[in-house]
Amino acid sequence: MVKKRRKKSLKTKLIEACDEEVKRIVRERDMGRCQKCGEPVSKNNAHTSHVKTKKRFPYLRFDLNNVKLLCYYCHIQWWHKEISDSWDWFQREFPYRADYLYTRIKEEEEIGKMNDILNNRKSEIEWLETTLENLKKINGEALIARNKSTPLLDIIFPE
Ligand SMILES: [Zn+2]
User: Fold this and answer.
1) pLDDT of 49-63, one tens digit each?
2) How far is the CA of 60 from the centre of ligand 1 (A)?
């Protein structure tokens, strides 16, 4: 099968360039050694391995706290196979970075929740229409609300 060659988009080019920079910095920071076994690594044996996966945590892809230098063996045969053991190791070896990643993930979850709320919100016109409808009905219901000691705001601004 002949592969169709597509021109890379600007986004793809930028991602690749950032990946390359991350590689360069991490190799230097980790002094060219596998962070697990300590062996010097180079070329194909030098793997810049993500702590939290690029796929599930795209916002941590270029975060230097999320990347470490490993040799091929420690990356493929250990890091990706002994998941809980390798995460324990990371927390033990790099407690600050583990805490940081945990905090970042929590923050992103909060941002995600906020986005959901915003996306689910009615349009302003819809909101005004509903509010007007509710305000028109308020006389009778305000009495009921008073009797039930329900806060009036709940009637004006229903969920
Ligand atoms: Zn190694």
Assistant:
1) 999 999 999 999 999
2) 23
